[in-house]
Design a protein that fits this description.
This protein has 13 helices and no strands. The chain is an all-alpha fold and 282 residues long.
Length: 282
């Protein structure tokens, strides 16, 4: 249970960092298939699915609420080491997914799956260097519908390994407004500011409902793809994972680099790999 919550924390933190994918972290830690199966068989295997989903969701919420600001500070104070830590977490998951296609013949379709999804992630990262105009979050029926739709898009991309949900929010101009709204909601909750809490709910509830709907919808599609074209799916995921460090390098700044930052950065990279390998153990 504790281990699954920790995995959820990693997924939650990953989802708030542009260029980092929660889906990739799930693959790295060996729980991606279990998550997808649990989400698509929630009604038919309710108890079994909830045993998997509840600790992951609890961990993800903890990661977003408790660690969002700490990660923000880390990126501000030690960006080089923080970026390499997340690259290590991603790289550490490659051996597990590579074993899925080990010993099997490589066909043209497999290579195309790899290349297409590699280019998609790298291309989105390059586009993501320019954030869209900040979205209007004032309360109106149109904005509620928009927030629900944005939640669907963000959650769908969060579930797909290699694609950063926060990067998609950034492209649509919702990243900073939604992140500020979450931080403001937490502050109001701690201060027992009821009007502020209610104002936050007007934004976060439709967005959250969209996220939940999007996760279950895309999970079913992914399950079908894995059933019909498993090897193509794994090669596509490998392409997404290999492209993720490229996306991080493009999306995030590294600050001043000297011998100390390089040495500590290498240590952070190694730590990320070890953590991913350990969390990926059954």
């Amino acid at each position: 249970m504790i281990k699954m919550i920790l995995k959820g924390v990693v997924i939650g933190v990953a989802n708030i960092i542009p260029g980092v994918s929660g889906g990739t972290m799930a693959v790295s830690m060996g729980i991606y298939d279990k998550m997808i199966h649990a989400a698509t068989h929630l009604l038919s295997e309710f108890k079994k699915s909830m045993k998997i989903l509840i600790p992951i969701v609890v961990g993800a919420v903890i990661g977003i609420v408790a660690l969002a600001r700490m990660i923000e500070i880390m990126f501000e104070k030690i960006p080089f080491q923080t970026n390499l830590l997340f690259i290590g977490l991603i790289v550490g998951g490659l051996p597990a997914i590579a074993r899925k296609v080990k010993g099997k013949s490589i066909r043209l379709g497999h290579l195309l799956s790899f290349l297409i999804f590699f280019v998609v992630v790298a291309g989105l990262a390059i586009l993501g260097e320019q954030e869209g105009a900040a979205a209007d979050l004032s309360f109106s029926l149109l904005n509620v519908v928009k927030l629900f739709g944005v939640g669907i898009v963000a959650s769908a991309t969060m579930v797909i390994p290699g694609v950063s949900g926060s990067m998609m929010l950034m492209l649509m101009g919702y990243y900073n407004p939604v992140l500020s709204e979450i931080n403001g909601f937490i502050d109001n909750l701690l201060d027992f500011n009821v009007p502020g809490i209610l104002d936050g709910c007007l934004v976060l509830v439709p967005f959250g409902l969209g996220v939940v709907f999007g996760i279950f919808a895309i999970a079913k599609i992914i399950e079908i793809v894995f059933e019909k074209f498993p090897e193509h799916a794994y090669w596509a995921i490998i392409g997404l994972i290999v492209a993720s460090p490229v996306a991080i390098l493009v999306m995030n700044g590294f600050g001043a680099i000297n011998l100390v930052t390089v040495l500590t950065g290498v240590a952070a990279l190694a730590a990320g790999v070890v953590i991913a390998l350990k969390l990926g153990e059954e």
